[in-house]
Known about the structure:
The protein is mainly α. The chain has one domain. Helix content is 80%, strand content 7%. It contains 5 helices and 2 strands, in the order H-E-E-H-H-H-H. It has helices spanning 2-33, 59-104, 115-153, 159-185, 191-234, and strands spanning 37-46, 50-56. The protein has a two-stranded antiparallel ribbon. A hairpin with a 3-residue loop joins strand 1 (37-46) and strand 2. Residues 1-12 have low confidence and may be disordered.
Amino acid sequence: MASEHSTTEPALGVSQMSLAALFVTALITAQVTAVKVLEVSLPVSLPVTGEVILVPAAVFAYALTFFASDCYTELYGKRAAQILINVAFVMNFVLLALLWLAIWAPISPASGVAQDPFADTLAASTGIVAGSLLAYIVSQNWDVVVFHRIKSYTSGRSLWLRNLLSTSSSQFLDTVIFITVAFYIFQGFALETVFELIVGQYLFKLLLAGLDTPFVYLAVGVVRKLERESAAKTE
Length: 235
């Protein structure tokens, strides 16, 4: 029995570690890529954005953080998810320190990238990180709390409902805080552009939130299947 337990335990550890790694990796990637603004053409014209919406390039990576945190909360509970969020929050400061170290360090003449564009690109990420830190700590904790509350109210049923409601509401908070701090306060974007970014990014995030629901079911189902198989082997 002891040997069976030792062979099945790492599989469960890998599942939990994989979700945590996905969460932190997507979060750090979002911080670095958010400085680039994308134009996404629409098939129709919307009142605020027109036929084009503006979104930070980080929207793809950051959407993964909510997918990972919802899976993590569903599988391991509210407390475990909050620990993950707090650890990842500290990693943002590690990222900021490493960015400034890379900028400060003397450049070699053999470098394929000149100092000024290198510093300009990474320095812009400082405002991104500052906006993200505030948006992150508010939205991710909101996401976990709402997800857990809906799960309690529905007695563990309707995973799709808590995934959509927690993600859509937390994404709204995240978008408003992040865009305002990162692009308006730090980078001085015009208010009109900031508003377009908020609307465009939130619409894009709502679409991604709807698309990720089947993958939340898939990920949770796979991990729970592993847990059942592990429990059966240890009996």
